[in-house]
From TrEMBL:
GO molecular function: ADP binding; DNA binding
Comp. bias regions, Polar residues: 1-15
Pfam families xref list: HTH_31, NB-ARC
Entry protein name: Helix-turn-helix domain-containing protein
InterPro entries, per the entry: Cro/C1-type_HTH, Lambda_DNA-bd_dom_sf, NB-ARC, P-loop_NTPase
PANTHER family in the cross-refs: HTH-TYPE TRANSCRIPTIONAL REGULATOR RV0890C-RELATED (PTHR47691:SF3), REGULATOR-RELATED (PTHR47691)
Domain of life where this protein originates: Bacteria
Region described as Disordered: spans on this chain: 1-29
Residue ranges of every copy of the HTH cro/C1-type domain listed in the record: 34-71
Length: 458
């Protein structure tokens, strides 16, 4: 039960500038007080939730004493209930009681959520189950992985904002880019811990000088707090493992193009793989971005355009931006522009380019996997293990190993024991690389056997 500290100290009027007369003040905790004020105003919980812009379920928990009210919520209550500073004062006092340790700076590092975020309802629910307040994991870690541009970061940010709106992670939210996909650029855990510790209030001169001490200090800071940590673009398990909280209360979302082999054996993590949007969701996203007028002018062209973007969010967003900026002012013109597969790879706006995102994943492959990837670009349809082995001139076991590596990098997707699928845009990209680097496939095989063909030049 969350006692009202102002009441405990015998100060019934609290710090309110406009205190209600003592005889009309309902007794009890913040939650009881809130319910009494709300009901006195004749507001249902749903009506009240709409007015304060907080989730109804969270408000119910606050009223029942199961959640601590934040100062932001309390201020909204004061505004809607016209109660002066009453609720804000109580929440401020509660916060001071609950957080006796000085030096904590409340981080709020989430990037803004997308106004036009579309679909992914199952993924959001799954994250609710794993990271929500009812989770069975001690320190919940959800790893969101998938191919370049599929929407991993967008999903993580969307869920994080919803959770904060629902009153979770009241001690703050940390967001850090681990720069994983680009080989050689992955951020060093020592430096990241330095940034994280500074973000929660540790000054430069107090940063420990050793990786393990920094990791321990970060865990100490997080102990007893409710913090959301988003680790975006992780390269590997080694990079992530030092950054995790050690005690319950906080939660972690990791995004990565890799499956992060080895992570599950180190921490209690769950994995959420992502694929492209469903067909209707892809069309909905295009419509939302280009506007109803353009979409209604030619709905069939919107469907064709979504198809030519392979329903991949990054391609859809770039195509839509292209339409809105009037380079190809209609869905029909844009779809016609993307008829040739190579043109799809040139989708770009500003410094965001589809091909560059694919390049980073490709460059991270070792030479035999890179070679197989290029070869797959020349084989239409489903990828069959036996056929791949014979075309690539390798043993079946070697083909299985290489295909497993490509699936681990989300450049292909395993369908069953013997088959894999390749996204149309990635296949077009692989074919394009093969044309540039290999000439014909047989020639490439000979060269590689001689050990001369390596990965794509940077
Ligand atoms: N569900 C969605 N609704 C609307 N826009 C989306 C959605 N998913 C992704 N996007 C947009 O698509 C683009 C690519 O998404 P995002 O950057 O999240 O992909 P990613 O999987 O994190 O890529 P990378 O592997 O390169 O980091 C972004 O502009 C993002 O805002
Ligand atoms: Mg990302």
């Amino acid at each position: 039960m969350l006692r009202n500290p102002a009441q405990d100290s015998g100060n019934q009027s609290g710090a309110s500038g406009r205190a209600c007369p003592a005889r009309t003040e309902p007794p009890g905790t913040f939650g009881q007080l809130l319910r009494a004020h709300r009901e006195r105003r004749g507001l249902s919980l749903a009506q009240f939730a709409t007015r304060v812009h907080f989730n109804r379920g969270h408000l119910s928990k606050v009223e029942n004493g199961k959640r601590t009210p934040s100062v932001v919520l309390a201020a909204a209550c004061d505004r809607v209930l016209d109660s002066g500073n009453r609720f804000t004062a109580i929440a401020t006092a509660l916060e001071a009681t609950a957080r006796p340790r000085p030096g904590w700076v409340h981080p709020a590092q989430l990037p803004s959520a997308k106004r036009l975020f579309t679909g992914r309802q199952c993924h959001l629910k799954q994250l609710d189950r794993w990271l929500g307040s009812e989770t069975s994991l001690a320190v919940p870690v959800a790893v969101i992985n998938g191919p370049p541009g599929v929407g991993k970061t967008a999903l993580a940010v969307q869920w994080a904002h919803q959770a904060v709106c629902d009153g979770r992670f009241a001690d703050g939210q940390l967001f850090v880019d681990l720069e994983g996909p680009e080989p050689g650029r992955a951020a060093d855990p020592f430096d990241i811990l330095g940034h994280l510790l500074q973000a929660v209030g540790v000054t430069g001169e107090h940063l420990p000088a050793d990786l393990h001490q920094r990791a321990a200090a970060f865990r100490s800071y997080l102990h007893g707090r409710e913090v959301l940590l988003v680790l975006d673009n992780a390269a590997d398990a080694r990079q992530v493992q030092h950054l995790l909280p050690g005690s319950p209360g906080s939660a972690v979302m990791v995004t990565s193009r890799s499956r992060l082999p080895g992570l599950l054996s180190r921490v209690d993590a769950v994995t959420l793989p992502m694929a492209e949007l469903r067909r209707p969701e892809a069309a909905t996203l295009l419509r939302a971005m280009i506007g109803d007028a353009r979409a209604d002018a030619d709905p069939a062209a919107v469907t064709v355009l979504a198809e030519r973007c392979g329903h991949l969010p990054l391609a859809l967003v770039l195509a839509a931006e292209n339409i809105v900026s009037c380079q190809h002012p209609s869905a029909d013109q844009m779809a016609a522009e993307l008829k040739a597969e190579e043109a799809r790879l040139d989708l770009a706006e500003g410094d965001v380019a589809l091909r560059h995102r694919f390049d980073a994943s490709y460059r991270a492959l070792d030479a035999p996997s890179a070679r197989l990837f290029r070869l797959l670009g020349q084989l239409p349809g489903q990828v069959d293990v036996a056929a791949t082995a014979s075309t690539a001139g390798v043993s079946r076991d070697e083909a299985v190993r290489l295909l497993h590596d490509l699936a681990g990098a989300h450049l292909i997707r395993q369908q069953d024991e013997h088959h894999y699928l390749m996204h149309d845009l990635l296949r077009a990209y692989a074919a394009d690389l093969s044309r540039q680097l290999d000439g014909d496939a047989a020639g490439a095989r000979e060269e590689d056997r001689a050990g001369t063909v390596t990965a794509l030049v940077a």
